[in-house]
Structure formats: C-alpha cells, structure tokens
C-alpha cells in the first residue's frame, strides 16, 4: 500500500525547506552524472592496474549502463508507490555501497559486478531526484526549481571528466568510485531530515518485475555476444540468439500485462516512435564516441588522465550554457531542423576527430572537433526532449521521458559493446598506440554514419507538434550520456 501524500506541494524556493530540497536532489543526481562521465577517463589506468583486456573495460562501462537502462522505469514506479523520498534514500545508500565495493575491488570480476549494482542504485535515485522537486514545490516555483536542479546537475556533469582525471593522476582511479561515499553520507541524512515524503497515493497493482528482468536479460545477452564475439566461441552465438529471443518475449509480456512497465500502446504515436529511433542513432554514436575518445587521447595522443578529462570539457560546457536557448529556438521554428542539423554537426565533429593522432595539438586538432560536437549536441538535445514530450498525452509525459532516457542509455550500451568489434579492435588494442589508432580511425566514420542515418530519420519523420503540447521544464542540461529526464506534473 502506498504511503499517502501528507499535503499539497507548497514549498517555496526562497524558504530554508526549498533550499534543502534543491541541495539534496542536486547532490544525489550529481553522483550518477559524475559516475557517467568520470569512469571513461580512468579506463586505461584501470586496465593497467588490474592487468585486463579491452573486453573487461567495456564491461566496466556497460555493467552500469545495463542495469540503469533496464530498471530506470521500474525505479520511478517504486517511488510513486512507496514514497519518493524513501526510494531516493535507498538509491543513494545502495549507490554508495556499490561505489565502495568498486573502489575496493581486487579484480575486474568484482569491479564489474559492483558496477552493475551501482546501476541499480542509480535507477532508484535518478527518477526520484526530479520527482521530489515536482512533488514538493509550489506550482509557481516548480519550473524554476527544475531549472536550478538541471543547471547545477549540468555543472556536476561538466566537471566530471576533469575531476576524474585529477583523481586518477592523484590518489588513484579507485577514488573515482570512493568519492561517492562521503557524498552519500551527506545526502541521505539531509534527505531524511529535510525533504518531505510524497507518493502518488492510492492502491497500486503488482509491479512489472518480469518485464524489468526480461529487459535486463535481453540487453545483457546481446551485450555479451557483441563483446565476446572476437573469441568466436559457440557460446557467443547462443547468447546472441537467446538475447533476441528474450527481447521478443519481453515485448509479448508487455503487451499482455494489465500494468506493464513499458506499455506498447505508447508507440501508437508515430512521432514518438520516430523520435526514439532518432534517439537510438544519436546516443549510440555519442556512447561510442566518448568511450573511444577518452582512450584515444591517452593511449595514442599521450595525454595524462587529467589532461584528457580537461580536454573533454567544451562539449558539456557548451550544453550547459546554450541548451535553454536552443530549446527556445526549437519552440519557434519547430524540431525538424534542429533534429536534422544537430546530428549532422556531430557527424562532422567525429570526422574531425580523425586529425587526433600521435602528438596531437589540442588547439588545432582536438578543440575544433569538440567545439563542433558541442554545437551539435546543443542544437539537438533540448528539442529532442521537447518533441518526445509533445508526441504523447500530457498524462504520459513522465513515462515518455523515461522511455526516451532508457532508450538512450541502451543505445550507448550497445555501441560500447559493438563498436570495437566493428572497428576490428583486438583484446589488447588499448595497450598499443598504433593498433588503437588504426581501429579508432575505422570507428569514427561508423559513428558519423549512424548520425547521418539519425538526421535522415528526423528529416523524414519529425513534424512540428501542437503549440498546446507540454514543454520540458528543465532546459539547462549538461549531461552527454542521455537526454534530460522529465516526470509528470507533481501530485
């Protein structure tokens, strides 16, 4: 039985209670945003210290994205039913415990398992952080509160690569994970003391645990098949076939359940389906790009982790500064042009990255590509979210955003698994500058091609939504791993 909401939302931003709620939710969501951006910078050092191959580094990234993508919709439903603060605090504590296990991991097996547990914690706290704001603040202050939450969270994402590089160069890569522990020790007690509890109220049906489990199994098996394919084992083919079969069973289960995690009828909107296909293309390319670029800068160009992390700052800084203006422009001209031009700019940036090789100069080789990449991301991210929300009924806005967010994370997961295979990157490639550089030069055109496909889909299928549609409340966005998450209006 759900815990009923105690009172209608009436907290004002200027009040001490409002400041505590913002502080807590920003701190909690920043843990997840930081972890999404800092780990790539640490991968070469993790590989050397644990003496592991490229496949283990892929799993270090993908184990986290796997559980986060598969469970984020379920995490939001749990908060609505049992109390958003309660599930948020459980997520923070869970995330911190898993981070501690990551930091203490004696080998890659424990590290990968702990990363998967981190994703579970992230799936509990990520939707809860925004839902708490929506459910707590007075309607007149809600949009501003969401904007502040999004902006401060974007700052956290922007400093992530720099912070990760500094930690790897200083106390060591384990502190990339251990940093979450003191943050959680601050966040959880403040949430319990200062954040009001809220829920959707009323009775709830059974949760779609079967759907969540099937989705996770399908993603895990397909990911395993792609990462382990170079070995040529018969188990790889079996895993791939089983993963596809699990995906088919997942879809059938969702169609038959009275309360599915992913209602198939939401895809009755052609625009919603089209924009999610564009999302898959765009965030698959982004996932592969940021995974390989962090390695290219260190393995081939000879950058230190700190210098590599700092080099990646322009993309998130540009998004943080200009996403709101991009969203306003898309409101005036419609989403078709931004969702077509943005991916093409990003594709051009990935081709510009072919200039980054041994002894690459930052100002002439690296920075131009990242500035074009940032411009492309600024152009498309806010309009993409607005179009997703505009393509369904306002009562389904939270679900639509959650589906789009999960699709982006799943696309990045598959890209990190598949791109090294498609580029012919061997298990030891990251130990050899020449081998990695050759594979990187094959991978970037692949990413650019996927973006061109996404631009073509947007041009052919995306249309201007009704002016009466719901617009995203948080426009200031700095994450490069997924679209901004929105929830339904506070209840």
Automatic annotation (TrEMBL):
Q: Where in the cell is it found?
A: Cell membrane
Question: Cytoplasm: present as a keyword of the record?
Answer: no
Q: Which PROSITE patterns match?
A: MFS
What are the transmembrane regions?
20-43, 55-75, 87-106, 112-133, 145-167, 173-195, 207-227, 233-253, 274-294, 306-324, 336-354, 366-390, 402-423, 443-462
> What topology does it adopt in the membrane?
Multi-pass membrane protein
Domain called Major facilitator superfamily (MFS) profile: residue spans: 21-466
SUPFAM superfamilies in the cross-refs: MFS general substrate transporter
Recorded hits in Pfam families, A to Z, give: MFS_1
InterPro entries, per database record: EmrB-like (IPR004638), MFS (IPR011701), MFS_dom (IPR020846), MFS_trans_sf (IPR036259)
Record region (Disordered)? 469-491
Protein's name according to its UniProt entry: MFS transporter
